[in-house]
Amino acid sequence: MDTFVTHPIPPVYDQDSRILILGSFPSVKSREEMFFYGHPQNRFWRVLASVFDEAVPMAVPEKRAFLLRNHIALWDVIASCRIKGSSDASITSVTANDLRPILDHAMIRQIYVNGKTAEKMYHRYTEPVIRRPCTCLPSTSPANAAWNLEKLVQAWERIRI
Questions:
Q1: CA R_g for the chain
Q2: What tens digit of pLDDT does each residue of 47-92 get?
Q3: CATH of residue 120
Q4: pTM to 2 decimals?
Q5: Is 42 considered catalytic here?
Q6: Count: domains in the chain
Q7: Which residues constitute the domain of residue 133?
């Protein structure tokens, strides 16, 4: 059964952020932890740590510091939706997040989306408003089993500024 959920996690960014990474909508585990990519099987933090040749951040303060140190802003395309558990495929009734506070505050050079659902939602709801393209990177979700960690790291290398 799907439920209506509002995104509970604020964006991470500061005036030095240069790239913006957008997911689709936080998983149940991420919503419980109140931070992005909280499910231990999601490879997001391992991929970024490899790309930037750093240790994998574990606690939320470490993750936040990692992002800001590497000039990364992080949020999701969707502000609220109907969703079954953590299933991107079940998402309906979408309201998009307003990216203008981030774009007005930071000199974002490039916008990346984490996976095809984020890309689809970005093109449908966000790009017509902010008129900036995005680059889709392969999803770090464990559901994207076709991409092993090594392939993901290679694909995500392009985010280095």
A1: 15
A2: 999 999 999 999 999 999 999 999 999 999 999 999 999 988 899 9
A3: 3.40.470.10
A4: 0.96
A5: yes
A6: 1
A7: 3-159
